[in-house]
Specification:
four-stranded antiparallel β-sheet; two-stranded antiparallel sheet; alpha+beta; MetI-like fold
Length: 398
Amino acid sequence: MKILSKTLNKINIFLENNPKITIYFPQFLIILVLTIIISYFSLNASTNMAARGIETGFAFLKNKASFDIQFSLIEFDSNDSYARAYLVGLLNTLLVSGIGIFFATVIGFFVGIIRLSTNILASKVAEAYIEIFRNIPLLLQIFFWYFAVLRLLPSSENSLILFDFVFANIKGIYVPRFVWTNFNFLTYGLVVSILAIYIFRFYSKKKQDLTGVQVPTFTTSLIIFVVINLLFIIIGNVGLSLTYPVLETNRGIHNYSGGVSVIPELIALAFSLSLYTSTFIAECVRAGILGIDKGQKEAAASIGLSKSQILKLIVIPQALRIIIPPVTNQYLNLTKNSSLAAAIAYPDIVLVFAGTALMQTGKAIEIVSITMLTYLTLSISISLFMNWYNKKNSLTER
């Protein structure tokens, strides 16, 4: 026992004299254990696959996919490779996730603020909205909007017509397509206008911090955007024309050609994700606003600020530090929940790559690994951006 006690004392003295060991050694052990676990499962999988004569590798990505995709943001046909099919699925996932995040944020902030309104009717309507949509499973909401609403629209020849150029039927919604000439000049105008707005907002904020004078940034930014782009359109002789959807009949089958078609699967999925996620964002916004001390609002009111100015200049900037972390979680959940698209055959990365491509090639480990890594990358990218935004909006002590 004395020998053991002396040994332990020597170890304690050694660790006290070398504090870096106590920091890095546990991390080394964790990495070692994880490496052993991953190596074991990888070796076991490769051994079993070799015993069954199954080849591994990613060479299959160059092979011809031999299937078509209903909806694609880029050109794709059955002669293209599995790698391009993966890209189509990825872009479709990014599209529905981006639409969902945008509308969920707008709706969530609006409902969250209305939830705190002194108007009882508005507050109760917002509360009912939140309680209804957040307590119904997302998959059921997707089924409802797809099967009970959009699939009940009329056929192509009996389409619902709005403003004489928007057509809605069971195959989707068809709207005119914008066709630009000399589009490069318009792109330059967008870049220059965004840069000008950024510089203007930077100096207006700096002026407000130094003098307290508030500049109407939104109105001025809008004017800058419109004026600069109009100048580039005039100088570059940028033209704009519209191609309208036209009903065509081929062998008794009616369909629209031209314009832009939005498939019902995309509408149902984006709508469901937006409504469902916005309820949680609304509660995050409500919690953030309630987290601001009442004295802040009273002090702002005492110097003559209106309710809208108090909300915009005092409450929201301080509430963001409370709102952003939980909202980040909701963005991550929305992106991952977009994988439910397979339930209504929206061609996202799960349906196209981890579904059809997997069934054709049998490359389960490779395809599932790529799909998992894709979602991991998307989630980490969202987290990094939101953490940067949160740090930018955090309060700095003076």
